[in-house]
Amino acid sequence: MKAFQIYHLNLAFSSIPAKSRPEVIQRCYWPLLKMAEDLCIPIGVELTGWTLDQIRQIDPSWVEHFKQMLHAQQCELIGSGWTQMIGPLAAPEANHWNQKLGVEAYEKLLGLRPRLVLVNEMAYSTSMVDLYLSAGYEGMIMDRDNVRLALDLDHQPASRVPTHALGLQKQVFPVLWSDSILFQRLQRVVHGDIPVSEYLDYVRKRASEDCQVLPAYCNDVEIFDFRPGRFTTEAKLHTEGEWTRMRRVYTAVATDLGIQWVSPSDALHAQNEGRKVKPRILSSVAHPIPVKKQAKYNINRWALTGRNDLWLNTTCHEICQRLVREGSAKAEQWRELCEFWASDLRTHITEDRWLDILARIDSFRESLPPYPCKHDAEARVPASSHLPECKIERGEDDILWSFDTAHTHLVLNARRGLTIKSLAFKSQGFKPLLGTIPQGFFDSIELGADYYSGGVLIEIPGERVRLTDLEWVRPEIVHTDHSVQIVGVLPLAKGKLKKTIIIDLESEAIRMTYEFQDFPRPLGIVRVGVLTLIPGFMGLPLSLHCQNGGTETEHFLVSSDVNHGQPASQFVSSTSAMGATDGQVMLLDNTGRGFKVEWEPAACAAVPLLKHLRTPHSHLTRLSFSLSELDDTSRPGGKLLPFDVVLAPVGGES
Question: DSSP string of 463-529?
Fold first, then answer.
């Protein structure tokens, strides 16, 4: 049996103050190299170009020593990028520059380029295959546990896991699998949480069950003989000395268990030697972006929590668009954007570093050409109920309001906050596509509720508050040259929600806008623009289509139950999401009919969540947009961004 180790070096570690970086190098990075030398273990060392450059500035002798070990093949460099960017949440141009700048840093400071790349935070989408191949990598390291979960292989032998990832253009890319449980067990034994004998028993068990290569460790190095300060419950430093204890453990693994330590590249070769190439898409609609560790580490950790991830990602999209539009942006400008898009700014970032990055962002934005803002230039005049372009009718007790144009039929429920009762399009025979499923439609009491469209849900668990927009509203109707606008303002805790539904009179487009007035960003969930499919119109199976950090669309078959918004625990409000980094999602049926939604990530980088539950005779399918989720990184501060989404049909009558 062969085994490998990969250590992730990260001076941008969110909870480590900048002043502690020299200490990290002395207590963590130097002992790592010394251990590899003394025990003759060809470890993998993964670090960003930014971290490598920071080490050079603080302790250039470490970089020189590392370089000598690399050229003597005593260790192996593993690529990352210029920063630890979450690829499936970033624009493709930023992803490209992140890899380009990272490779240039490796070549400049170390005189070589890595063969393998580690997926940043193990946050993977199929688009990453295209990105890594274009950067010149020959293989990648990815977490095995969550890919097994995505592919419904979590109870199957490790040998069933694909050997290669399949790209969007059917490219085949080798994968060296890491393992969350194995690296967590190593951390526990080194910290003294479990005895060495227990760890060796577990490794022996895994060695007998797994394939011919064991991923002994693939995670942080700043947690040995140092504590990053993320949690008040962090273990005390082991009195034996954790690097001393690690050496003792690794020596026992080799001598007592007869395991041979090999480099990551040699491990990849051994892992696939003699095996038939088994390429496969490594994600699914239930897990469109697999990440590392347990469920609390889902993609929303870097999209919608932290100190203000939504604003930060939105700002990065805005800056990226300005650089692309400028056309002659310099490498240093892209480098700065990559640093703004680093994952560590989105988790346990310290107050000082957060304030510093806010100042840097403000200064950088001021240095760029003005960003064009969208303005409604149409003259607004009060509407009558007899407009030739749009027939407006009120139902009994003024609860239901219908708006019929040559292109759309829309019914709104004023008693329930202008939610959508039904929406139908001419190209689809005016058969209702989206709307409200009333209580009693489903036989099961578990689904015994009304399922509205166009609504808002806010939950703040710490305050035991649940807010919706399902209240009476007297709509204001405004007519312009090209649209009819239905406006409602609803009280929402201490603030207000202004909801506007805009019917385009010249097309089948429906626009929905949500503006939160005097409403702070809560420590909880905020989901808006919920769209509920009317069962029976779209044939099964459904499919979902969006981009996740690349230039090509990823396609997901919706053939099983999905619930991205299901809480992972009482402290983590969701389990998954889609990146949708170009601001588009399509949901289609087996005939190509369905709908498309579009929004502007540079105005609000909302994250789409899908819920699809099958019943014996029907299904409940809902698409929503999250502006905030809750996890252990969530901190107060900031305001909710306004969200504007355009809905249009796809495909005609079947």
Answer: GTEEEE--S----EEEE-SSEEEEEEEEEETTEEEEEEEEEESSSS-EEEEEEEES-BPPSSEEEEE
Neighbours of 585 (CB within 10 A): 23
How deeply is 460 buried, as exposed, middle or buried, from its count of CB atoms within 10 A (0-12, 13-18, 19+)? middle
Closest by CA to 434, choosing from 412, 414, 456, 415, is 412
Task: Write out the two tokens for 523.
Answer: 């420590």
Percent of the chain scoring above 70 in pLDDT: 96
Mapped onto helix, strand or coil, the DSSP state of residue 629 is: coil
Q: Of all helices (H) and strands (E), which one includes residue 286?
A: none
Mean pLDDT score across all residues of the chain:
93
How many CA atoms, within 13 angstroms, populate the side-chain half-sphere of residue 294?
Answer: 8
Q: How far is CA 140 from the centre of its chain?
A: 19
| Cβ-based neighbours of 409, under 8 Å, separated by 6 or more | 402, 403, 422, 423, 424, 425, 430
DSSP string spanning 336-363?
HHHHHTBGGGGSS--HHHHHHHHHHHHH
Structural contact between residues 428 and 652, judged by C-beta atoms closer than 8 angstroms? yes
For 598, counting Cβ atoms within 10 Å of its Cβ (0-12 exposed, 13-18 middle, 19+ buried), the class is middle
Give the whole-angstrom CA distance, residue 23 versus residue 19: 8
* Residues 6+ away with beta carbon under 8 Å from 357: 340, 345, 349
Name the pairing type of β-strands 400-404 and 408-413: antiparallel
DSSP string, 77-120: EEE--SS-B-GGGS-HHHHHHHHHHHHHHHHHHHSS--SEEEPG
Q: Is the pLDDT of residue 126 over 80?
A: yes
Question: If 0-12 CB within 10 Å is exposed, 13-18 middle and 19+ buried, where does residue 423 land?
Answer: buried
**Which tokens sit at 499?**
């909801």
E strand or H helix at 571? none
Residue 26: what pLDDT? 97
- Residue reference for tokens 């399902």: 470
Beta bridge partners of 499: 488, 514
Give the Cβ contact number of residue 194 at 10 Å.
15
Distance CA 451, CA 448 (A): 9
Tokens of 333: 């400008």
* Chain segment 402-431, per-residue pLDDT in tens: 999 999 999 999 999 999 999 999 999 999
Cα–Cα nearest to 35, from 259, 260, 249 = 249
Compute the chain's Rg from CA coordinates: 26
Structure confidence at residue 327 as a pLDDT band (50, 70, 90):
confident
CA distance 247 to 192: 14
> What CA–CA distance (Å, rounded) separates 180 from 178?
7
pTM of the model: 0.94
